[in-house]
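Q: Got a minute? One more chain.
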Amino acid sequence: RLAEAESSPAESPRIEQLADDLFRDYRINERRSLDDVEARWRLHLKPYLGSLPATELDSQLLARYIDKRREEHASNATINRELACLKRMFRLAYQASPPQVPSVPHFPHLKEDNARQGFVTPEQYAQLVAHCPDLWLRAMLETAYSYGWRVSELLSLRVGQVDLVARTIRLDPGATKNREGREVTIESGVLLQL
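A: Always. Here it is, folded:
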C-alpha cells in the first residue's frame, strides 16, 4: 500500500527526485558542465530544497534561497547558475510524459556584473613574447592574443585543425563554449613561421 501511495499521480515528487533526470539530460547531451551541476546540487540546492515537495517551490521560497546564498557571500552569477539548474530540473519534469509537476515556477534572474577585465595590453604582450623561449608556446600565446580564444579551446587544438597552406585555424563544432565551429585566417606573426 505504501508503494501505491508513493506512486500516486496526485502526490508531488520531492525536488531531489527531479535531480536524476537533470543529470541524465546532461549526460545524454554530453554537456561538459555535468560535474559543476552535480556539485551545485549537492553543496547548495539539495541541502536547502531537496526534501521539499516540488509543488511547494514558489517565489517566496526562491527569494529565501537567494537571501541564504547571499548571506554565504555567493555572487549573483553563482546564484543564477544554481537557479538555472533548478529551472532546468523543473522544465524537464514538466515536459515528462506524464508531467511530474503541473507547472514551472518563475525563476528570478539576478543582475550580474560580468564585464570582462584584465585584457593584455600590447606592451604586456610584447613582454610575454620576449620571455617565451619555445616556439610552440609562443604560437599558443599569439593565437590567444590575436583571436581571444579560451585556454580550453587552445589546448584542445589538433594538428589537423591547422592548415598552414590555406593559413587557417579551425575550431570544430562542439569544441567551443557555444558548441559552434569557428575558423580564422592567420594574418601574420610566428604562426606563419611554423
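A: Residues 119 and 145 are 9 Å apart (CA to CA).
Q: Perfect, thanks.
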